[in-house]
Amino acid sequence: MTQRPAPYVLDPAARDADAEHELLRARGSATRIDILGVEAWSVTDPVLLKALLTSPHVSKDARRHWPGFDDAVRTWPLALWVAATNMFTAYGGDHRRLRRIVAPAFSARRVAALRPTVEGIVERLLDGMEAAAPGDVTDVRELFAYPLPIAVIGTLLGVPDGRAGEFRGLVNDVFATTLTPEEAAANTEQLYAMLDALVAAKRADPGEDMASVLIALGEEGADGRTLTEEELRDTLLLMINAGYETTVNLIDQAVTTLLTRPGQLAHVREGRASWADVVEETLRHSPPVKHLPLRYAVTDIPLPDGRTIAEGEAILASYAAANRHPGWHDDPDVFDVTRITKEHLAFGHGIHFCLGAALARMEAEIALGAFFGRFPDAELAPEGGDMRPVPSLISNGHRSLPVRLRPRRDRTGAGEPAQPRPAKNS
């Protein structure tokens, strides 16, 4: 019997993710890896990954389809990623039921209705950043990329002003992959305590927000109940996690890339590309999530090269590596906003495709257009901050984004004539 080669151990801190993704691709369309002590198949070939993401023989329900679930819950730092009870970890009928409940929050109409709110938040954040003196260094991740999605998801869920930011540190640690199991468990406990407080506040004073709607679905009575208490908490958890960290990284990566590639920014300013093009190429080239744990083989799954993902084995969707697969795009490592085909898997594929994709895209397009319109001479200042990757093999961003804004006194938009700024009340 041929012995399996030892799995490749992923770097928990992802210090050189691009090199690691290239190595994974070189090991084949799927390869055995170790992710923080758990063995899984990393899939980097986009054709194979799409097939698995749409296959009824691949599940996200660890309780039903992963023999390693009990051990992982006790000892794995990423236990929350497989133990939560929401549509992210659901399979079959449970997934369809939970997705139908949440989908209205991200309808095209509701996302469009949020545009003025997003624009207002962006303007307020830029106003605050504009106070920096010419030549000073501003951490754009801290003062812009972070607070925007937190404020938006707070609006969507009805979190009182000033309280949404309390989730920030706890959500950051959900994506961290350098915590001990004890540290991760403590973070999860604190996060659920905050969610319980939010649910209690909404039960006492319900509103028109999504949190209140979800709570009402769980209180229709024993016969009409459509959402259990556990599903309620974990659905709120999913909406906060998915709506926050990923958008932070998208804005971070887009700003960083444009400031290091002025020719790409010129394409936008001179009308050869749009901010939507920037967002899509960023999602392809530097997606907010590198790897997404986990899925499981419901039955033996034969691979094109003759190997088999055995029933019960875990599968890791390696989105960042797949996005730059040389068989998918020409010059995949090159960032090019004029690229005709920018297809990517940043939001997943199939039935688990991210419901918040349209909202994330809208937030990023508004944020980028307004940022580069307000600060057309901005330049990266790497000496002024820590631009190392965040210590996570999941999250794909920088520890900080130091920028010398050099603001002008007008709000010139990309390719637009300068407009006089409205007077502010003193």
TrEMBL record:
<dbReference type="InterPro" id="IPR001128">
    <property type="entry name" value="Cyt_P450"/>
</dbReference>
<comment type="similarity">
    <text>Belongs to the cytochrome P450 family.</text>
</comment>
<keyword id="KW-0503">Monooxygenase</keyword>
<dbReference type="InterPro" id="IPR017972">
    <property type="entry name" value="Cyt_P450_CS"/>
</dbReference>
<dbReference type="Pfam" id="PF00067">
    <property type="entry name" value="p450"/>
</dbReference>
<protein>
    <submittedName>
        <fullName>Cytochrome P450</fullName>
    </submittedName>
</protein>
<keyword id="KW-0408">Iron</keyword>
<feature type="region of interest" description="Disordered">
    <location>
        <begin position="383"/>
        <end position="426"/>
    </location>
</feature>
<keyword id="KW-0479">Metal-binding</keyword>
<keyword id="KW-0349">Heme</keyword>
<dbReference type="InterPro" id="IPR002397">
    <property type="entry name" value="Cyt_P450_B"/>
</dbReference>
<keyword id="KW-0560">Oxidoreductase</keyword>
<dbReference type="InterPro" id="IPR036396">
    <property type="entry name" value="Cyt_P450_sf"/>
</dbReference>
